[in-house]
C-alpha cells in the first residue's frame, strides 16, 4: 500500500495539474489496478508528473507556523481536535458571524501533526477534503439532540465555549454553532441539523481557515483541557 504522504502527494499533484492547464479533463473508465508492495512506478508517468511535482513541492514545503509537540486525534477529546475546532470558531467570528461554539466530526481529521515547523502540505494531510464552514442557528431541542449524538459517538472535536451546551438548563431558546457542511447536510448521523432555524454557508474551506489560524497563532497555542460533554 502507498503510505499516507504519497497518497496525499498524488492527490495534490492532480489538483495542481488541473489548476495549471487550460485543457478540459475528460473522464476515463478503466479496470482497477491493485497497488501492492511489488508495484513499480511508471517511468512515463514520472516524467509527466516531474515538472508539476517540483512546483508543488516548493509550495507545499512552505513553513506557515510552529507546533510545540506531536498531536494526534483521540476520543473523547484531543488537543489536535480542540485546536482545529478553535480555528474554525476563530475564523467564523473574524468573518463577523455570531457563534457560541464549534463542533467538528472526528472522522474529518485525517492525519496527525508533528512537532516543529508546520508546512502547508501538512494542513492538506490534516484536512484533504473540500469541506466548508457552515453556521447554524439551532433550537434548544436540537441542541439536546446534538449533545446526545456526541455522547453516543464517544466524543467529537469541540471548540472553547462548548460548555454552554453541556451546562444548558433549557433557559436558552437558540444556539449558533459552527460545523462543516458535511455535518450540516446530515452526514455522520447529524440528520437532525437539517432542522436548523437558519443556515449560513460561509464558503470558507475548513482547511483555509486552519491555515490562517496557524499563520496568525505562531507558535501554535495548545489547550490540553479535556473537552467532553
What does this structure look like?
This protein is an alpha+beta fold and 229 residues long. It has two domains: 4-60, no CATH class; 65-216, 5'-Nucleotidase, C-terminal domain (5'-nucleotidase,  domain 2, Alpha-Beta Complex), CATH 3.90.780. It is built from eight helices and six strands. The protein has helices at residues 4-20, 43-60, 79-94, 120-126, 140-153, 163-166, 181-184, 206-216; strands at residues 63-67, 101-102, 116-119, 132-139, 174-180, 198-205. Strands 2-5-4-6 form a four-stranded mixed β-sheet. A two-stranded antiparallel ribbon has the order 1-3. The longest helix has 18 residues, at 43-60.
- Number of DSSP strands? 6
Oligomer: single chain
CATH superfamily of the largest domain: 5'-Nucleotidase, C-terminal domain
How many domains is the backbone divided into? Answer: 2
Distance between the termini: 38 Å
Rg from Cα: 20 Å
Helix vs. strand class: alpha+beta
Determine the fraction of residues in helical runs and give it as a percent range. Answer: 25-40%
In N-to-C order, the SSE pattern is: HHEHEEHEHHEHEH
Mean pLDDT: 88
> Shape from CA axes?
globular
Looking at CATH, which topology of the largest domain would you report?
A: 5'-nucleotidase,  domain 2
The main β sheet shows up as: 4 strands, mixed
CATH architecture type of the largest domain: Alpha-Beta Complex
CATH top level of the largest domain is Alpha Beta
Q: Unreliable runs, pLDDT <50, ≥5 residues?
A: none
Beta-strand content bin: 5-15%
Read across the widest sheet, the strand sequence of neighbours is 2-5-4-6
Q: What is the number of helices?
A: 8
